[in-house]
Specification:
By secondary structure, this protein is mainly alpha-helical. The chain is built from 3 helices and 2 strands; from the N terminus they run ββααα. α2 runs antiparallel to α3.
Protein backbone atom coordinates (compact mmCIF):
# COMPACT_ATOMS: atom_id res chain seq x y z
CA UNK A 1 0.00 0.00 0.00
CA UNK A 2 1.52 3.38 -0.97
CA UNK A 3 2.20 6.06 1.59
CA UNK A 4 -0.76 8.40 1.50
CA UNK A 5 -2.52 10.78 3.81
CA UNK A 6 -5.78 12.69 3.92
CA UNK A 7 -5.22 16.29 2.90
CA UNK A 8 -7.02 19.05 1.03
CA UNK A 9 -10.66 18.15 1.31
CA UNK A 10 -10.23 14.44 1.98
CA UNK A 11 -8.29 13.71 -1.21
CA UNK A 12 -5.57 11.13 -0.77
CA UNK A 13 -2.30 12.67 -1.90
CA UNK A 14 0.76 10.53 -2.25
CA UNK A 15 3.56 11.72 0.02
CA UNK A 16 6.11 10.75 -2.59
CA UNK A 17 4.67 13.25 -5.07
CA UNK A 18 4.55 15.96 -2.42
CA UNK A 19 8.17 15.26 -1.51
CA UNK A 20 9.28 15.41 -5.15
CA UNK A 21 7.39 18.65 -5.72
CA UNK A 22 8.91 20.16 -2.57
CA UNK A 23 12.40 19.12 -3.73
CA UNK A 24 11.93 20.64 -7.19
CA UNK A 25 10.60 23.87 -5.70
CA UNK A 26 13.49 24.08 -3.23
CA UNK A 27 15.96 23.56 -6.06
CA UNK A 28 14.29 26.46 -7.90
CA UNK A 29 14.60 28.61 -4.78
CA UNK A 30 18.28 27.79 -4.45
CA UNK A 31 18.89 28.48 -8.14
CA UNK A 32 17.11 31.84 -7.95
CA UNK A 33 19.11 32.98 -4.93
CA UNK A 34 22.37 31.77 -6.44
CA UNK A 35 21.78 33.53 -9.78
CA UNK A 36 20.43 36.83 -8.42
CA UNK A 37 23.83 38.52 -7.99
CA UNK A 38 24.81 37.48 -11.50
CA UNK A 39 21.93 39.36 -13.13
CA UNK A 40 21.14 42.11 -10.62
CA UNK A 41 23.19 45.30 -10.44
CA UNK A 42 24.02 46.41 -6.92
CA UNK A 43 24.31 44.55 -3.66
CA UNK A 44 21.36 46.45 -2.16
CA UNK A 45 19.04 45.40 -4.96
CA UNK A 46 20.16 41.78 -4.57
CA UNK A 47 19.52 41.93 -0.82
CA UNK A 48 16.12 43.58 -1.33
CA UNK A 49 15.07 40.99 -3.91
CA UNK A 50 16.20 38.14 -1.67
CA UNK A 51 14.32 39.54 1.31
CA UNK A 52 11.13 39.96 -0.73
CA UNK A 53 11.36 36.42 -2.09
CA UNK A 54 12.05 35.00 1.36
CA UNK A 55 9.27 37.00 3.02
CA UNK A 56 6.61 36.15 0.45
CA UNK A 57 7.83 32.55 0.33
CA UNK A 58 7.53 32.17 4.09
CA UNK A 59 4.07 33.79 4.04
CA UNK A 60 2.75 31.54 1.27
CA UNK A 61 4.36 28.49 2.88
CA UNK A 62 2.70 29.34 6.18
CA UNK A 63 -0.72 29.68 4.56
CA UNK A 64 -0.28 26.38 2.71
CA UNK A 65 0.86 24.60 5.87
CA UNK A 66 -1.96 26.02 7.99
CA UNK A 67 -4.52 24.59 5.55
CA UNK A 68 -3.00 21.11 5.69
CA UNK A 69 -3.57 18.46 8.34
CA UNK A 70 -0.78 16.29 9.64
CA UNK A 71 2.79 17.22 10.50
CA UNK A 72 4.63 15.83 7.48
CA UNK A 73 2.07 16.99 4.89
CA UNK A 74 2.07 20.45 6.50
CA UNK A 75 5.87 20.63 6.31
CA UNK A 76 5.80 19.55 2.67
CA UNK A 77 3.04 22.09 1.94
CA UNK A 78 5.18 24.82 3.53
CA UNK A 79 8.18 23.86 1.41
CA UNK A 80 6.07 23.68 -1.75
CA UNK A 81 4.56 27.11 -1.08
CA UNK A 82 7.95 28.60 -0.23
CA UNK A 83 9.50 27.24 -3.40
CA UNK A 84 6.55 28.15 -5.61
CA UNK A 85 7.21 31.83 -4.96
CA UNK A 86 10.73 31.37 -6.33
CA UNK A 87 9.73 29.52 -9.52
CA UNK A 88 8.99 32.62 -11.65
CA UNK A 89 12.26 34.27 -10.59
CA UNK A 90 14.20 31.08 -11.28
CA UNK A 91 12.64 30.74 -14.73
CA UNK A 92 13.38 34.37 -15.60
CA UNK A 93 16.97 34.02 -14.43
CA UNK A 94 17.33 30.78 -16.39
CA UNK A 95 16.20 32.53 -19.57
CA UNK A 96 18.52 35.47 -18.87
CA UNK A 97 21.37 33.02 -18.40
CA UNK A 98 20.55 31.33 -21.70
CA UNK A 99 20.49 34.66 -23.54
CA UNK A 100 23.67 35.89 -21.90
CA UNK A 101 21.87 38.95 -20.56
CA UNK A 102 23.85 41.58 -18.65
CA UNK A 103 23.03 42.82 -15.15
CA UNK A 104 19.96 44.98 -14.91
Amino acid sequence: MPLACEVWGGLAVNLLYLTLLAAVNLLAAGYAHRQLPRFTAGARRVLFTRLVLLGVGIALGYVAASETSGTLPALLAFLIGFGAVHLPAAMILFVKHGRGAPKS
